[in-house]
Amino acid sequence: MGRYDKLLLLVTVLLVMLGALMIYSCTSIVTPVFAKKGVTEFYYFKRHLFTILIGFSVMLLAYRLKPSFLKKNALPLLIFSFVLLILVFLPGIGVSAGGARRWIQLWPSTFQPSELVKLSMVIFLARYMSMPDYRADSIVSFAKPILIMGVFQAAILKQPDFGAAMSLAVLTVSMLFLSGVKLRFLASLAVFAVPVVVKLAMEPYRLKRIISFLNPWDDAQGSGFQLVQSFIALGSGGITGIGIGNSRQKLSYLPESHTDFIFSIIGEEFGFIGVTVVLVLFLILFVKGISVAARAEDSFIRYLATGLSLMISFQALINFAVATGLVPTKGLPLPFISYGGSSLLVNMAAVGILLNISKGEHTEEIINDRELLMKRRARRRITEEKRRTGAAGRIYPDRLPAPR
Amino acid sequence: MSRKRAIILHTALIFSFVMVFLRLTDLMIFSHERLSERAKQQHIKIEDIQVRRGVILDRRGRELALNLELDSLYCDPASLSLDNEDVRKLASAVEKEPKAILSKIPNDGRFAWIERKLEPSAAERVKGLDIKGLGFLTEAKRYYPRGELASHVVGFVGIDNQALEGIELQYDTYLKTTGGKVFLGRDASGRTFSSGVDIEAKGNNIVLTVDEVLQRIVEKELDRAMQEWRAAAATAIMMDPFTGEILALANKPAYDLNKAGRAGDSERRNRAITDCYEPGSTFKIVIGAGALEEKITRPNTLFDVSKGGINAGGKTIRDVHKYGVLTFQEVIQKSSNVGSIMVGMRLGKERIYKYAKLLGIGDKTGIDLPGEVSGWIFPTERWSGTSIGAIPIGQEVAVTPLQILRAYSVIANGGFLVRPHVVSRIVAPDGRVLVSSGENEGRRVISAKTAGAFRDILKTVVEDGGTGQNASINGNEVAGKTGTAQMINPVTKRYSREKYVSSFVGFVPADNPRFSIIVVVYEPKGQIYGGVVAAPVFRNIADQALSYMDVPREDTPQRNPLLVRR
């Protein structure tokens, strides 16, 4: 007790270092596309190193935060991230790129609130599901978080950012699943698929674009281009790869090679061995995360640790699956590795929290939920009383019943 | 938190990792080759680069074909704006019609040649005009400094250096090297990024066996003969009889290699190896060598040719002059048809055919020049009744001049059939010798004794009483044979009464030959006999060649070589 999990930290550091290396490899050759933007050899690399520096600070900060603080502030954090999400649409603050408004201006860079939404959603759900009055078999308990998620989804899809929407949905549903909600509740979520199916039926070209991942070679120059290029990158890597810095696919063949498809470039340069190492590192991260969760006695911490592990692992998995053509092509960064500050900061924060939890010191510090619940009940009773008697009511701490 | 649910979810997640792993195995290991191939296809752009063609040198290193760097004018139609005045100026600068210039400028695209390989002065004039949208690229142009000399050996290339004739064609792969392509990486937009590639490929140089001076002598004498006899064409080949090295090979009419495009078919024909003719009396080498080798006759065996004619299959063949009784040696010396047919009849058609084949008649010599034909001699079962009267005296067979020269070289070198060749060696840019023609690749076909005996007979041909007296040279013994044959009229398929082929083939010095020469003059006017038309050409060539090669003369005191003794 009392020591954080060193392996967890080591794996994270390794992934971040690999990411920095790959970003340098991908962006150091100034291709015409980059050159047009006035980008030099170290442009992306320097910025990424700066982000990493902030990332470790954020990790340290998150490590210092007491879980009780998170528990108390779960709802405010969620509301805060929702506000940021809305700010994206405000002119002057929101930044759009490539036909999507996903970022807010944050000197000297931009921030992507949808990344923060995932983290605050995990904390909120952990808080929500660890409440003593949470009834997994109650449709009301199930509907509340679904409703909240729905509001977030609406904002995220408005941007639009299908990748983020997808990972948020998977994350929320998984956590609800973990809490033991009735399966028919989850099944009922299928009704949300109906409008999607209708829309796709009305606009078949969208469907075609989505399912092009099943056979990208059919339209290798069109809808399948990115995936075909990803395959070529992975395939030409072979077992040992073509050597660091030697990727050809990054020369503007593979769009987003330094962000969403960086995994394919790892495959090209380091081969099957390289991608296996990445896979194993993420697997260690996941197993470490859930074992940290399993050790925790407090329900909130268990949910929190599991949720954060799932958040990182789902993102990594979806990224792998996109790059290998197992799921439709959607832009989603690879945690710790891809270029893009928001994702890195959020995931570093998640690791910071996990590291803190791994110390296993928090059983006593957690706020007594029962007490909180009783306060709430008392408040409700007094309000009702007040309504009945018409008297102005004010609750004083000394009038609260003593904890049992 | 439901423990069961946690196990299910975590298992599903780990299973997903395994799925990704399996997918990666498929993509990166099992599809590795296919996808690498795809990658190569899109990453590599193959570009032809200018190859500096190897040069062609004579046996002493004199350049017969080399490269000049000339400017080629191109335009970028997108940025080109020409008014009529500009077009007129440009046209006059490159010495073309304005219309011709305009026709070369396309409406779209970014590149089009206007005029390639400009003369330096014309390029200067165009540069002086300073018109936007025009540009120059340096191209190597093949240049043949000796013009017409050895045109049929050297050959030539087209504007894009594509090989068209001669050595240029035969050894094209060596001259242009196997390379000539450069592999450039390119990005998705098709831009090449490794522009630092600056490979100038160089072809291999070829050293010929031909000697420029001897070639000049041969061509000069052929030109003179062409004029003197107003001949349709003429061919001469000079060869080292021991090695098969061609020292000179010339055909007239010839053409300037730098203006090869304007040359007609007749000028471009390499008659020495591509044209067949009936050899006439020079073919008597077959029955001569055969009869001696088979010991059917000796040089002094007597033949009664006093009738002046002989019946062969119902057809009478006559001699030009009436002789009495001739020795075998005299039959050859005086080129008696009757005597030769008598020898041929004794030898029999099977053995005539055998010795013709042994001496290389009807087969390609294997010379390393394009377009050689084999000629023909019928196998005996296809001989008609009159063939026995025709073939011994060189009718009903078709040969190339080179075949006859090679057959006489067998006599000159003591019985070996050699492979004629014009390339001595091929030298890589770094000086390595890639190919070297071997020493004597000859194959023994007749005995040294037979060769020696027939050589002695051939010596008498140029002596008093022989048909080839005009070929005799002061101070050196010549061995040779004249030939005069009617040409076959291609329309009537009969022997022409006006058109003859006069030839002389021989070697000097007779007992230790430095070279063998054949001279063939097609359709001489006024005189027809090989001894009159071709023998003097042989003599003139041989005389000068002997001087050039410093071959000692018997009747002149040998020049004392300057030797510094230490």
Notes on the protein architecture:
The complex is a heterodimer of chains A (404) and B (566). With 404 residues, chain A is mainly alpha-helical. Chain A has one domain (6-379). Chain A is built from 16 helices and three strands. Chain A has a three-stranded antiparallel sheet with strand order 1-2-3, with helices on one face. In chain A, strand 2 and strand 3 form a beta hairpin. In chain A, helix 3 (43-64) packs parallel to helix 15 (341-358), helix 6 (113-129) runs antiparallel to helix 7 (139-158) and helix 6 (113-129) packs parallel to helix 8. Chain A starts with 5 loop residues before the first helix and ends in a 15-residue tail after the last helix. Chain B is an alpha+beta fold and 566 residues long. Chain B has two domains: 46-208, Penicillin-binding protein 2a (Domain 2), CATH 3.90.1310.10; 212-548, Beta-lactamase. Chain B is built from 19 helices and 24 strands. In chain B, the strands form eight sheets. In chain B, strands 3, 4, 5, 6, 9, 19 and 20 form a seven-stranded mixed sheet that branches. Chain B has a five-stranded antiparallel sheet with strand order 11-10-24-23-22, with helices on both faces. In chain B, strand 22 (479-488) and strand 23 form a beta hairpin. In chain B, helix 12 (285-293) crosses helix 15 (349-358) and helix 17 (401-413) packs across helix 18 (448-461). The N and C termini of chain B lie far apart (112 Å). The interface between A and B is large, with 48 and 35 residues.
Task: Show the helix and strand layout.
The complex is a heterodimer of chains A (404) and B (566).
Chain A lengths: L5 H22 L4 H5 L6 H22 L2 H6 L1 H14 L6 E4 L2 E7 L2 E3 L1 H17 L9 H20 L3 H18 L3 H6 L4 H10 L1 H8 L13 H13 L24 H34 L3 H25 L17 H18 L10 H21 L15
Antiparallel strand pairs in A: 1-2, 2-3
Helix pairs in contact in A: 1-3, 1-13, 3-15, 5-6, 6-7, 6-8, 6-14, 6-15, 7-8, 8-14, 10-11, 12-13, 13-14, 14-15
Chain B lengths: L2 H28 L1 H12 E5 L2 E2 L3 E2 L5 E13 L8 H10 L4 H6 L8 E4 L4 H10 L4 E10 L7 H4 L11 H5 L1 H5 L4 E5 L15 E2 L2 E4 L3 H18 L3 E7 L6 E7 L12 H4 L2 H4 L10 H9 L8 E3 L4 E4 L2 E4 L6 E3 H6 L3 H11 L1 H10 L17 E2 L9 H4 L6 E2 L2 H13 L2 E2 L5 E5 L5 E4 L6 E2 L3 H14 L17 E10 L6 E14 L6 E8 L7 H19 L18
Parallel strand pairs in B: 2-8, 3-9
Antiparallel strand pairs in B: 1-7, 3-4, 4-5, 4-6, 9-19, 10-11, 10-24, 12-15, 13-14, 16-17, 18-21, 19-20, 22-23, 23-24
